[in-house]
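TICKET: design request
STATUS: open
ATTACHED STRUCTURE:
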């Protein structure tokens, strides 16, 4: 049962920030994660600050220079269906299309999807785990078949978002605003790994909120996409996924950004694989080397070793499917 809380619907961003000054205040966008966290007792809310009236945070536009601008309250379904996104920023459209279920895509927002909390059953359950300020990650010696093989350590959650790795592959930035003012940072820098702070997923400061995301214009010859592997064809979170944005020029790879989902506490970029690819022509030998490089350093747990060959296969499949320039 949910505990009693106050509920307010501010009419402006400045009013929302003012309401968020109260201790125990929580932002409410689509609510698809917030309500679950409150029901599961992950955290409490003395006040829920609804953003429903902030229409300035909705919508998708393409600037004259080709930059894609998405408001934080834009739904996942709107992103998946938008022709400009599907036509030019394919990785994002494909990622949005495989988020959860149709009902949740119509309710959930891009801001909420980027900021959602971990789905680890120990974190969501009645355990004083590391992420909740305890001194133990129960998944390390417990049921860990869906947990991290990269970037774990003190906590082996996996980041649940599909849109985040796609946006990072597309070199997106996130717009934030809080008590100290507004800032824009690369989305890749938005997430916090356990080695830095096992109790946080993002760099959001108290009272700070997401205003939207900015995706730069795609380069000529860029191919992007998102491949997600899950236990069921709908609803499930990724066991592993791969977002890619590869730019081809004169038959060679001029630029590459590869980001894994479902395998680390944050979207997991593969800089060593990118470096290996740039300047080269895609062929079976290079693809095989890239797949081997992608799993270097993986540290599977007792029950999730299957993710290592899964990532290897994803790299082979995705790179092998990129058409020649």
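STATUS: resolved
RESOLUTION: sequence designed for all positions
ATTACHED SEQUENCE:
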């Amino acid at each position: 049962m949910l505990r009693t809380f106050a509920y307010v619907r501010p009419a402006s961003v400045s009013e929302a920030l003012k309401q968020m000054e109260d201790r125990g205040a929580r932002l409410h966008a689509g609510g698809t994660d917030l309500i679950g966290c409150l029901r599961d007792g992950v955290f409490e809310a003395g006040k829920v600050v609804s953003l429903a009236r902030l229409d300035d945070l909705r919508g998708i536009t393409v600037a004259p220079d080709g930059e894609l601008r998405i408001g934080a309250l834009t739904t996942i379904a709107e992103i998946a269906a938008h022709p400009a996104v599907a036509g030019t920023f394919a990785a994002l459209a494909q990622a949005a299309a495989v988020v959860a279920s149709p009902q949740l895509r119509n309710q959930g927002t891009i801001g909420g999807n980027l900021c959602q909390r971990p789905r680890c059953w120990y974190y969501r359950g009645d355990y004083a785990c590391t992420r909740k300020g305890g001194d133990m990650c129960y998944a390390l010696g417990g049921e860990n078949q869906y947990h991290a093989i990269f970037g774990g350590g003190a906590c082996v959650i996996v980041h649940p978002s599909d849109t985040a790795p796609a946006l990072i592959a597309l070199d997106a930035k996130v717009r934030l605003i809080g008590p100290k003012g507004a800032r824009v940072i690369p989305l890749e820098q938005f997430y916090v790994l356990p080695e830095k702070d096992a109790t946080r997923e993002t760099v959001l400061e108290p009272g700070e909120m997401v205003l939207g995301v900015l995706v730069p214009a795609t380069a000529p010859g860029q191919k992007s996409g998102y491949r997600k592997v899950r236990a069921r064809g709908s609803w499930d979170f990724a066991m592993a996924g791969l977002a890619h944005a590869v730019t081809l020029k004169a038959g060679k790879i001029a630029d590459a950004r590869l980001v894994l989902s479902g395998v680390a506490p944050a979207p997991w970029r593969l800089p060593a694989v990118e470096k290996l690819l740039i300047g080269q022509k895609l062929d079976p030998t290079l693809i095989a080397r890239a797949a081997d490089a992608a799993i270097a350093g993986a540290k599977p747990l007792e029950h999730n070793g299957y993710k290592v060959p899964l990532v290897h296969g994803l790299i082979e499949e995705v790179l092998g499917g990129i058409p020649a320039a």
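CLOSING REMARK: Residues 307-320 form the longest helix (14 residues). Residues 78 and 106 are 8 Å apart (CA to CA).
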